[in-house]
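User: Could you check the structure of this?
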Amino acid sequence: MGLNDVEFVNSEYGFAVGAFGVLIKTTNGGNNWAVSWGNLDPNQFWLNIELTGVFYSDLLNCWVTGYFGGYGNIVAHSTDGGANWDTTSIPASYGSSNDIFLISESDGYIVGQSYDYKTTDGGNTWTRIVYPSDILDMFFLNEGLGWAVGYNGRIFKYFDPNVGVEDNNNFANPANYDLFQNYPNPFNPSTKIKFTISDFGFTILKVYDVLGNEVATLVDEYKPAGNYEVEWDANNYPSGVYFYRLQAGEFIQTKKMILMK
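Assistant: Sure, the predicted structure tokens are below.
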């Protein structure tokens, strides 16, 4: 069994794809893997497909791409963590897809030998695009900054200076890490927490009670540099003092908040 690509959305959940429609998932950091064909019958559909790329946007949404016989490309999307898949065929006279990457909820790319495609409607439809060289892989930090690689040692960089600019003409990508005081505080029953990270990396934001017990995980994934805001709904928790802790790279900071019902 040959594996072609692997993608993790956090430290525990990941997908890997490969030859003969191999599609496997881990929920414990790669210690164990299980097939994740879901509603698809591998003997009738996946057996003749070479899966070459996977993109894992969150715990529920996963995209895979591949080809069959070099004469057609396939895209499959799951919105329930691999239990069910919707598939779309992209015909091609020759060539094969290699990888898939979504840079936002609406925009994404499939890249490969001879044929590349773009979606602007969240993957419902794909339109062929032409690059000056075969693109085999790409990676985006955000909608305005990305790289692609291909044959003949070519590396392409995409940069849009209008992405990530605030109204005051300052770039939204912050220079430092920071965790802000939640608001409102005290709160009932929900509150918002803002934080900034200055570099792409694994980011964790958790809530603890006064005894140090973890009560909620608000963020647990890789994130690009930027400004973020998350909401914690404490409707099912008792009144009292809670702490929220941000860990991003070597940066760690904790703040206190009060739930009053």
